[in-house]
Amino acid sequence: MQQSNQSRVFFRLAIVGIIVTIVLNTTSAQPPRVERVEVGPLSIELGPNRQPAPPHVHPAPQPPPPRIEEAKRPMKATVYDGHFVKNTFIPEKGGSFLVFRDFSDFDNVFGAGAVMGGRQKFVTEETFKDNAVLVVIRDGLWTFDVKSVDPTRDGPVLEYTAARKNTNGNARFVTPLVVSLPEEIVRDGMVASFIENGRPVAKVKVERRDLPGGWTEYRPMEKEWEHVFENAIRRERLEQAGYQPLLCATQVVAGIKYRFLCVSMPERRHQKEKVAVISVYTGPHGKIESVKVASVSVDD
After folding, report:
1. 121: CB partners within 8 A, 6+ apart
2. CA 162 – CA 144 distance, rounded (Å)
3. pLDDT at 62
4. CA of 110: how far to CAs of 90, 121, 147, 160, in Å?
5. 151: Cβ–Cβ under 8 A, 6 or more apart, which residues?
6. 241: exposed, middle or buried (C-beta count within 10 Å: 0-12, 13-18, 19+)?
7. How do residues 111-124 score in pLDDT, each as one tens digit?
8. What sign does the CA torsion over 122, 125, 127, 133 have?
9. What is d(CA 54, CA 91) in angstroms, rounded to the nearest whole number?
10. 132-169 per-position pLDDT tens digit
11. Residues in CB range of 237: below 8 A, 6 or more apart
12. Which residue, 122, 100, 101, 98, is CA-closest to 112?
């Protein structure tokens, strides 16, 4: 009897073990396969009932950051050898370094020196349709040899060699180096760099501005001009004349010349009002070298 009861217990335990095993196998089984459907940037997962799960949006691909390519090879430059510097332009002691973007400005400084049977190259109005011109002007007789013109993200770099020649007598020579290059690498705000005999000698900001040679039109006063005018008045002790500048014209030479169109408002009643042109010249280092006053009385 006791043996029969033990058999029943063992049998029931076996049944319970089988049920537990089945349950564990069922809960640990792999979850149902999930399908994925992608439509454009949307990724939709389908669950066991093939019902779409909340969509997941892939982030849009970001474009790579812009890159400014540096030139790996020097750019070919065109050198013009048919020009001379007009005697109205006086180069600075250490040389003048210029960037021209307009033929009229260039023509104010340079003349064409054609010779019989020569094959010189000349800058023309056509040159400035898609080019800019870099210029070096040195006092004396020089020979120049352009090594390269490299475009960079900051602006063009002109590298050349320069050698001065000995001259006899009292003849005065002024020698230019004139080089053109594509205008797309000489844009406003860039800086043109000049490297002479392996040594940086000048940096010129590229902008459409007044270049050496001719006088500009009269324009409203600017802060820089007002500062020059005030220093000139104090230098000549003209405060009592009451000159008030209205307009200014400038000329870039070896330094800068100014013409101030003024009206005088004298402090003393017996003095008449005057219209005056005050001419001021500042040297290469900005120091006032001369002041001249030409005035005309205004009749009642």
Report:
1. 78, 79, 80, 81, 82
2. 5
3. 61
4. 12, 13, 23, 21
5. 71, 75, 157, 181, 185
6. buried
7. 887 766 667 889 99
8. positive
9. 76
10. 999 999 988 999 999 988 888 889 999 999 999 887 77
11. none
12. 122
Name residue 231's amino acid.
Answer: N
Tokens coding 270: 């017996």
Is residue 255 classed exposed, middle or buried when 0-12, 13-18 and 19+ CB atoms within 10 A define those classes? middle
Interatomic CA distance for residues 258 and 277, integer angstroms = 10
Task: Please tell me what DSSP assigns to residue 185.
Answer: G
**d(C-alpha 134, C-alpha 182), whole Å:** 11
Residue type present at position 268: R
Alpha-carbon distance 110 to 34, whole Å? Answer: 81
- Is 226 strand, coil or helix? helix
- What is the rounded distance in angstroms from the CA atom of residue 202 to the CA atom of residue 280? 26
Per the structure block, which two tokens stand in for 35?
């399908």
State which amino acid sits at residue 295. Answer: S
- The identity of residue 294, as a single letter, is A
Q: How far apart are CA 153 and CA 78, in angstroms?
A: 21
* Residue 47 zone, left/alpha/beta (φ > 0; ψ -120 to 50; rest): beta
Nearest to 195 by CA among 152, 236, 166, 238: 152
- Distance (Å, rounded) from C-alpha 121 to C-alpha 104? 18
- C-beta separation of 204 from 97 below 8 A: yes
Q: What is the mean pLDDT of residues 21-40?
A: 51
